[in-house]
Amino acid sequence: MSVYPGFRDDLLAAVPSLRAFAVSLSKSADRADDLVQESLVKAWDKQNSYQPGTNLKAWLFTILRNEFYSQMRKRKREVEDADGAITGRLSVHPAQEGSVDLKDFRRALEQLPEDQREAIILIGASGFSYEEAAEICDCAVGTIKSRVSRARTRLQEILEISGEGDFGPDAISTQITNTAFIA
Amino acid sequence: MTRRGKDEDPLGANSEIGRKLRQYYDDLVTEDIPDRFSDLLNQLEQKSGAETAGNKD
User: Fold this and answer.
1) How many domains are there within chain B?
2) B28 to A120: CB separation less than 8 angstroms, yes or no
3) Same domain, A38 and A91
4) Residue A173 in domain
5) Are residues A159 and A106 in the same domain?
6) Is the CA virtual torsion A95, A99, A100, A101 positive or negative?
7) Which structural domain, as residue segments, surrounds residue A120?
8) Which helix (DSSP H) or strand (DSSP E) does residue B3 occupy?
9) Is B7 helix (H, G, I), strand (E, B) or coil?
């Protein structure tokens, strides 16, 4: 049973926004789709914790965000374990290309730390209020405000200095010691 | 409900960053959605439908 009739349809209607947020967070279209899938399953399983009439989109974004960070922690461990074998996959750009202009913008956005990137996306693009974004990110309204402001400043700086070089994904140098523990 | 009040909107229509941000995001939102999501939701619904029916008595 659904928590209310039409719950399934409402989840489906939220998928485009969830995907956009997931791509913004994970920087990878493939990972984003996995994130959305995982989030929908979680949302379905815990649908009784959703209060009908409250903001479903915010509820779903919270689930997706938690899923993202828990996957990221897991991946970090995997990367460390796997001697950097997975690092290549971490930096796949989404298929989205768009205009050259927008490509530069996307790359600039990808350079922001996660907390700033999510804040500026939630406020500037997803249409959430500062209060809603604070709830989604489980932090104070003032924290969101300062993250948005730092993100904006940083984007401006990057976009002004960009143009000459092709800065791809950050080279995550996880040079894990190859030191074999040979006794 | 966006209540920006007297807060000046740093990402508003007059901001280039704000415009690009929305353009970037809107491109993503309007992408075609893979069928796997509606398939998944159908499965979840069927599964819980079956569970409910099974728990009837």
Assistant:
1) 1
2) no
3) yes
4) no
5) yes
6) negative
7) 98-165
8) none
9) coil
What phi and psi values does residue A13 have, to the nearest 5 degrees?
-65, -25
Indicate yes or no: CB of B40 within 8 angstroms of CB of A40.
yes
pLDDT in tens, B3-57: 444 445 778 767 889 999 999 999 999 999 999 999 999 999 998 877 766 554 4
Q: Give residue-wise pLDDT tens across range A41-78.
A: 999 999 999 999 999 999 999 999 999 999 989 888 88
Report the residue from B3, B24, B38 with minimal CB separation from A102. Answer: B24
d(CA A37, CA A34): 5
Is position B38 within any domain?
yes
Q: What is the mean pLDDT of residues A103-132?
A: 96
pTM reported for the whole predicted model = 0.78
Q: Do B20 and A105 touch (CB under 8 A)?
A: yes
Answer yes or no: do B41 and A40 touch at CB < 8 A.
yes
Instruction: State both tokens at B15.
Output: 């901001």
Q: Which of B2, B21, B27 sits opposite A96 (nearest CB)?
A: B27
Q: Tell me whether residue A172 is in a domain.
A: no
CA distance to partner chain A, nearest, from residue B35 (Å): 11
- Interface contact flag, B41 A44, Cβ < 8 Å: yes
Q: Give the tens place of pLDDT for each residue, A101-114.
A: 889 999 999 999 99
CB A57 within 8 Å of CB A136: no
CA distance B56 to chain A (A): 12
Which chain B residues touch A96 with a CB distance below 8 Å? 27-28, 31
The verdict on A76 and A113 lying in the same domain is: no
**Which of B11, B33, B48 is facing A152, going by the closest CB pair?**
B11
- The tally of domains found in chain A comes to 2
Can you tell me the distance from the alpha carbon of A163 to that of A171, in angstroms, rounded to the nearest whole number?
19
Out of A23, A36, A125, the one facing B22 most closely (by C-beta) is A125
Q: Tell me, yes or no, whether A81 and A117 share the same domain.
A: no
Is residue A147 scored above 60 in pLDDT?
Answer: yes
